[in-house]
């Protein structure tokens, strides 16, 4: 699975709110090991700003979408309807998990 580096920060933020720091860092490192990470650079941020203007996406969601679009992806795993119309097909997490399970 692929993700923007911003997704890692977001995951860590939420884990820190729910548990201890060492556990949050360990969970975040495990997540990083399972992902192909894509950097957030000026090009991604500019594309994200364009998405904010042209779609319902805001902030981090625009960064995630911009990262996926610039990497050439056609789908994004989400339950958020705001991604409809951004150029990516939203895929529910259960469907994505089913696909991942069928690969192994």
UniProtKB/TrEMBL annotation:
The keyword Repeat does not apply. InterPro entries: PIN-like_dom_sf (IPR029060), PIN_dom (IPR002716). SUPFAM superfamilies: PIN domain-like. Pfam families: PIN. GO terms for molecular function: hydrolase activity; metal ion binding; nuclease activity. Residues 2-83 form the PIN domain. Keywords: Hydrolase, Magnesium, Metal-binding, Nuclease. Gene3D superfamilies: 5'-nuclease. This is PIN domain-containing protein. It comes from Serinicoccus hydrothermalis.
């Amino acid at each position: 699975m692929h993700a923007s580096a911003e997704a890692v920060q977001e995951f860590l933020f939420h884990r820190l709110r729910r548990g201890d720091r060492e556990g949050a860092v360990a969970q975040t490192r495990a997540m990083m090991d399972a992902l192909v990470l894509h950097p957030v650079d000026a090009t991604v941020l500019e594309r994200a700003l364009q998405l904010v203007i042209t779609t319902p996406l805001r902030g981090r969601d625009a960064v995630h979408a911009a990262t996926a679009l610039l990497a050439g992806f056609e789908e994004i795993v989400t339950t958020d309807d705001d991604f409809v119309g951004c150029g990516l097909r939203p895929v529910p997490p259960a469907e994505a998990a089913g696909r991942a399970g069928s690969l192994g």
